[in-house]
Amino acid sequence: MEQAAYFKGYRPAETAASEADRRLVANVNPSGWTNPTPTGKYNLVVIGAGSAGLVAAIGAAGLGAKVALIERHRLGGDCLNVGCVPSKTVIRSAKLLGEIARADRFGVQVEDVRVDFSAVMERMRRVRADISVHDSAQRVTKLGVDLFLGEAHFTGRNTIEIGGQTLAFRKAVIATGSRPAIPPIPGLAETGYLTNETVWDLTHLPPRLAVIGAGSIGAELAQAFRRFGSDVTIFDVLPRLLGREDEQAADVIRRVFEREGVGLALGVEIEQVARAGDAKQLTYKRNGATHTLVVDEILAAAGRLPNVKGLNLEAAGVACNSHGVEVDETLRTTNPDIYAAGDVASRCQFTHVADAMARMVLQNALFPGAKKKVSDLLIPWATYTDPEVAHVGMYDWEAEQAGIAVETFVHAVADTDRGRTDGEEEGFVKIHVKKGTDKILGATIVGRHAGELISEVTVAMSGGLGLRHLATVIHPYPTAAEAIRKVADAYNRTRLTPTVARLFRWWFGWRR
Fold first, then answer.
1. Which one, of 333, 376, 334, lies nearest residue 353 by Cα?
2. Domains and CATH numbers, the chain
């Protein structure tokens, strides 16, 4: 993919103190904030005002509970400040560039394309500030929540201290989220790196970028920065992109990346990072040979770690491990009065999962007898590369490991009429069913709007609807969702066994 990028110069990571940033901070971490004076015991104290914490606190207050919410940094957590909102805003600009790069296929000639990276990032800041109103301190307090800003720690099984004040509670929720995991590569810390928390501070595009980690975050940002004009190389110890995803889906993204000029250093081990003048040099091994790569910035995107430091969980009798706070099926910790939700207690670290877990905690913590189980959650997710990759339920190999025989039905997006009209050459809908039935076990979708399409399959699975039912659903024509119906049609054709076919021939012959 040819890049027609316009560079206004490059400087290392810096924070743009823009009007949008000031609006953001005024909403989610207002200066001069005075914490309320706690009176009596709280029905619920929530530590962490990210996705899970906000849902739990606002939901409980809406039910009439006396609620305290504690946040040490910014309300909105990762999703608003450094995660979903900024990344998807920036990715939107990158997707537009992808459309422009393919414009000639549709008879449209586009010349002199310029990427103003500073403007892309400033738009992100404006969007983030606009959305921050929903997570603002003013809104939270207006909804009846006592908001405390600052560091908090447990002082007992039912007490928390913040700013010299003690909060007594009947129930509590730990929703402190996660942070980037930094790979232990010699020289990386000394040389300097970006994470998903600091990459949004860039105001100028790094001409050369190394991305460590080929998971969702790494893949999304590698493609976006390549489209903006950076020379990008993505590294991972695994031999393929998106190591947790369907192999066929990952292969589609690999082909797209190769076509667009993203360098792939997969199945390699980075031995060290060092300064090289004003640049940074990575030394790595591939197939036994040593290689080096000089870049201007390094983005570490190699997983997440739970935020439990400083909480003094021992005082509350709450156990934790390397994966976060230990919880049971109802999200209750080893202290029966304390629950945990979101990234700090889940390996599925998505905003929508944190939201779902928080709603579950509300029922289980506040209402005796409620026993909602986290294992009952049906969790879809999406990686917002172009094309997108979305998944729900089991992969075929997971089903087989569980001893469940599987049948798989696939339909290419390019073989739908909408795929042809849109020139969508990559992508597919793949649905797994339990062999001999139409029970949907899981699905993977690759396409421009896979994140939207996966919800149809998720709803069917949640409602116990089999694959054959999706063949009876009328889909607007022509849409990409028609690929789902065609997969269901493929399943229905398997029901026409030779015996059934003979019976039909006999019937129609008799009716003539």
1. 376
2. 19-180+305-376 (3.50.50.60), 188-302 (3.50.50.60), 387-494 (3.30.390.30)
